[in-house]
Specification:
Layout lengths: L2 H26 L5 H7 L3 H26 L30
Helix pairs in contact: 1-3, 2-3
Length: 99
Amino acid sequence: MPRLIRIYIASVLWGICLAAVFTGLLIALDVAGLRHLLMQNSAGHLAIVMLVVFNSIVFSSVQFGFRIMTMHDKTPPPSGKRSHTILTPKLILAPETRR
């Protein structure tokens, strides 16, 4: 299996776990009266499932993006030296305004 597919599947599984913990904490700590709202409503179970699913999408996406952005190629540049870009500030004068 390609490496990116394995990273994606692992990110999705971590995202689901994080979403379940996050939703559990939201309900346990009764943030903004959420536990009362979910327990008193007949569609509370559906709302809990929706919270887990949508938070899973968010957490999985963030996890996958983080993993992709932190990947780096361990081979050095072709010249064998590290390439450094030196940034130097330039002075830009504002145009004079006439009154």
